[in-house]
Amino acid sequence: MRPRRATLKDSEQQARIFRRRSVLAALLVLIMFSGLIGRMVWLQVVQHDIFITRSDKNRMRVEPLPPNRGLIFDRNHKVLAENRPTYNLTLVREQAGDVGQTLQRLIDILGLPEDQREVLAQRSRERLRSYEPALLLSDLNEDQIAKIAVNRYRLPGVEVEAQLIRYYPDGEWMSHVLGYVGRISQEDQQRIDTSNYAGTHFIGKTGIERFYEDELHGHAGVKRVETNARGRALREIDRTPPQPGKNLTLTLDSRLQKLGHDLLKGKRGAIVAIEPATGAILAMVSEPGFDNNKFVTGIDTKSYAALRDDIDMPLYNRASRGQYPPASTVKPYMASAGLEYGLIQPSDTVYDPGYYQLPNDSRRYRNWLRWGHGRVDMKRAITVSNDTYFFTLAHRMGIDRLSSFMHKYGFGEDHSLDVWGAGSGLMPSRDWKRGRYNQAWYPGETLSVGIGQGYWLATPLQMATAVAVMANNGKWVRPHLAMQVGDQEIAPPFKNTPDDIKLDNPHWWDLIHDAMENVMSGSEGSGRASGRNLQYRMAGKSGTAQVFTLGQKEKYNASELEERLHDHALFTAFAPVDDPKIAVAVIIENGGGGSRVAAPIAREMLDAWILPDMKSSEEAQRHARKNESTAQQIATGD
Hints:
By secondary structure, the protein is α+β, with helices and mostly antiparallel strands.
């Protein structure tokens, strides 16, 4: 057996290997420890805000605080739109689980019609952001609230919340001018700052509510609450209170508005009353109307269909959007144009045989009085509403100058300051017809426009504005509905006000006013029946607008026509003549003669506004005279 060989160990090499391995192991440990420290620094320092926010979200929730909507008052501080407390039913889709199942349970619990399921489903999607409650039902009654409370465990994500809701005490006769609020729709979301509407379910849809939405709404606040694992609020941590909307005071007089409503009851028409000196709209009535309270909480399909399909169109605002031929109400404005262009003088006369003929034209354009008024000057032509005089003037003037001058009175344009959706009417011209019909303008069309017929269309608001400008001797003040927004007064002068109408001879205004006063007080005045026993000086002008065109030899006979083919009745007026306090325009659809039907309504509106002030002034004068007499007796020792 061979002996084993002894192997010598290299201690130094082993020590070097050990040291290298020890260093590598230490480096590996150091790298891993550094990574751990770095990760801790990243999580605890760099991302501290993120994780503290996530932590807070597990126990805290930020809830919006909707602002109280501003109130709306009339000029005498009577409430026109207020907020009343109510209970709403809301749903947070993210907390509801199976939304369809939850909605079905709601329908079963509350006993709602089955067709409400799709309505509720649609409403549940109408919200501004995730985790925000969507409004399902408004104005819950006590029985509904009790049923939901008993079955709350079966309705995840469903809450009953207290909130203020809009209410209109005088909804029926204020509906068109005030408008209404309604649920925020997807279309509304495109025009609002969604962050400011967090927690708000309603927004102005039409009228004043729509125009002054930003001022009436206010600014939303927020509150932070601590919640439990189920998301129930335990306590409030802090809050930023909301800023309530500004109150709005209107120029409207609810007493005059109610009178206009009563005068038009059972008719289709409109009344607009304006204070000439300030442009304040005192009344703006459109009939038939509707109850705007029904739209706040959501009108049912059947009721809305009844309003929408009603042949009388109760949803249509005739006062600001209705377009009618202004008829003979434009004759005073035509006279001012003729004087300014030098085409007539007040003393010039025209002979009226009952018709007018264009040169080299056999067609007869008939005066409303078929046997004519004989010889008429400007004053008599306005007084008796002679057509032949104004056919002659219109032909001399031509459509270009006629259209240009009538724009100065606001026809064909919307110059209102804050009337939402106001129409611009139509002031025809040669260029308009070429662009609209690609046809030339004919002289006969100028004659029709010269008496407010043909293509010419105007809104009652425009007619009232024009007669207010006439009352002001051509001075313009834009018509407006707001008197005060919060603490800010709304008063003229306003930006973008049209230029005043200036005639070469200011005395011409007085001559036209005298002619309009003669309409009410003269022996031949077309409105003399309504002018009896006037206690103040009233100027007016009637108009009767044709609904359809008569043939050359046809004669209008209302008794042979259905009611909706009867002429429209119009009347414009202002008073007192020497110091105008009110200007009015009245339109009665298919009412017949303006002097017979519309003039009495205008007279009642003027009486209601002027006579109380006259009585107050007379009482003040009597009181002053009595004091003066007493002072004299004391001074003389009697």
